[in-house]
Amino acid sequence: MADKTSNVVGEALLSPSPFTVDLNVAAWLGAKAEGVEIATLTNTAKAPGLPDAVPVLLKRGTAPGVEGLERLLEPYRQFPARKTGQATAQTFEAFCNLTLRHLTDHSAIFANMDWKKPTLTAVIDYHELAEGHANFGKHRVHYAFPLSEEWQKWVAGDGVKMDQGDFAWFLEDRVAELSSPTEEEKLQYERDFATTIATPAQLVELSRGLQVNVESKVKASTTLQSGEGQIAWEETHSGADGKALKVPGIFMLNIAPFFMGDKVRIPVRLRYRPAGGKVTWFYQIYRPDQFITEHVRDVLAAARDQTGLPTYEGTPEMSA
Length: 320
Fold this sequence. Notes:
Layout: H1 3-12, H2 23-32, E1 35-42, E2 53-60, E3 65-68, H3 70-73, E4 85-89, H4 92-102, E5 108-112, E6 119-123, E7 139-144, H5 149-157, H6 164-173, E8 178-179, H7 183-193, E9 197-198, H8 200-212, E10 218-223, E11 229-233, E12 245-247, E13 250-255, E14 264-275, E15 278-285, H9 288-307, E16 311-313
Parallel strand pairs: 4-7, 5-16, 9-13
Antiparallel strand pairs: 1-2, 2-3, 5-6, 6-7, 8-13, 10-11, 11-12, 13-14, 14-15
């Protein structure tokens, strides 16, 4: 086997498309000798993304041809040609640690800002910036913000109408997630919503008053000058203390939307509708998208600080 012959053969086998073999030349080789030989095919077209040369197997004899070596060598591979797959981190700390373990000069982090299911994705083999070469984008670290059970319950009940008994029990069960407003919150929300903002104690008092009157018929429902609602029942005692119940228009949640995450403060509007002697209750979380988006942006900034990688709001390209 002569090196000179191999090089000539490698160049002769090239057609205008890189790595395409001229079978007439292969047939001529087959008529000359028997056996196989490893030759080099040169990427004379300089097609982007392809190597300058590729080794191939030349088969000579009665059935000449050219065959790639990958199929022959693949069974003996000791490790993959490149990193692929997506690791799933269950905590933000794990996401940062895994990203730091594998990052390259071209890695990038993307944040899906959907407030109902936000995620972070680090694309380790992202497209190169300096030379502009495309990369495979198949090695990733993914973190789906795990929603806390408490937050899921509040979101599931948002806008759902409840009868008096169910709503009373709901408030008592969720009292741990309620918070007293700060002075700033009290001024802002009472001004913006033209109503009073409740403390947890006032909501507990309301829930117990509702339980007392769960079987009673509504006598009157009025709106006070303060913005509170006032409900009276036909029985001699209307609330737990025998007085008409005052209903605040808004209250504060202090809750961690994500499992083991930081707590955020979110206002919730309290609503009721008297009809047919009964009262229907429901609540509306005020702008949850705004508060969750701000929180995700804070986490994205923390990811940028801890990894040193560029961050983007959006989703990366789908890997081929």
